[in-house]
Amino acid sequence: MGNPHVLVMPYPAQGHIIPLLELSQCLVQHGFKITFVNTEYYHNQIMNGNAMRDKIGNQIHLVSIPDGLETLEDRKKPGKLSEAVLKVLPEKLEELIEQINGSNGEEITCILADQSIGWALEIAQKKGIRRAAFCPAAAAVLVLGFSIPKLIEDGIIADDGTPMKKQIIHLSPAMPAMSTETLSVKATEWLLCNSTYDLEPAAFALAPIILPIGSISASNQPGESSVGNFLPEDSTCLKWLDQQPPGSVIYVAFGSFTIFSPAQFQELALGLELCNRPFLWVGRPADITDGKSNAYPREFQDRVAARGRMVGWAAQQKILSHPSVACFISHCGWNSTMEGVSNEIPFLCWPYLADQFLNQSYICNVWKVGLRLERDESGIISRREIESKVEQLLGNEKLKARALDLKNIVKTSIKEGGGSHNNLKNFVEWMKS
């Protein structure tokens, strides 16, 4: 068989697109042809981002299909987006496959899809195309899905998958506790995961079908930028980092979905000011405070000008690998979690939604490389809480030592002979057979 032509289909969200783009780049290095399918909205973002487009180059054929949504506001509504994913995208993807397979002797030999869109795998099965699924989240999320029949039997969730009551589940003493509020799973011929055996041994023991190939971000060359930067990067912050003492900078970033109330945003700003340490804060106020561009406290930017940098977007992998970075105040998205772990960075955890709370449990309870930021009686993470936890974190030498251990575990997994390396090698050989 010649080199495979793989159609890659992510769920339409930045945190899902990034790791599949990185995996696609890896497959290109093995001689594969990649057709990467985004919705028109995300496709246009990529094509308008020069740094990202240049990094992908001509190796990956980027194509788009419509999602049927008219406004950005609709795309930010989970209900509207889910409806489009289920009702519009399947037909459009099938049309695209037929178009590719009917042109110039082309043939899609494998569909690699986000595990959350099982209909893409059903289309592959119907058309006799090999299929593989990729989970951009922790393996524990999939294991919870595999446990649904037993959870139904035990009366924890109903037959339709909804929780009978809100409670915390422990599937294994070595896995983080999980809430019954969000459950989902898909299955396929291959089920790949952006993790490693040693980071989640209990999860992989419960579900050997899941094959870790991560950390995908750690496979990049040191200091290399992610392919998934959708917005123009502020490269000046890296020069600013060069001027800071080693292990001194608080890095603050919350991904692309987190929204703060104006009161919470101001407490965060004042907390960083109280820390009296250098900080790099990534995030546009108008995006993370629901459109309020004047969200900073009065004269805050003037007061912190000598030691604080606020930028709209930056190359996170380059930042986390920089020797001046001391810790990461994070929303605990799995991509950010894996990037932090791969770079020996301790965390202050500020989860916002979905699996971010599970990832916080891994960071704080299982791996013990971070601390939780706790809310007060009004539901706010206060400036004093931020100041206190930063000092606790940076003064904890045992926690820093564990962060180094985790970095070495991740690095070992992707080297020749490591578990993630072997799984990816076997997957490539299967697709070429």
From TrEMBL:
Residue stretches spanning the membrane: none
Keywords assigned by UniProt, alphabetized: Transferase
Record Pfam families: UDPGT
Keyword Oxidoreductase attributed: no
Ribosomal protein found in the keyword field: no
SUPFAM superfamilies named in the record: UDP-Glycosyltransferase/glycogen phosphorylase (SSF53756)
A molecular function (GO) term: quercetin 3-O-glucosyltransferase activity
Family note: Belongs to the UDP-glycosyltransferase family.
Name used for this protein in its record: Glycosyltransferase
Organism: Carpinus fangiana
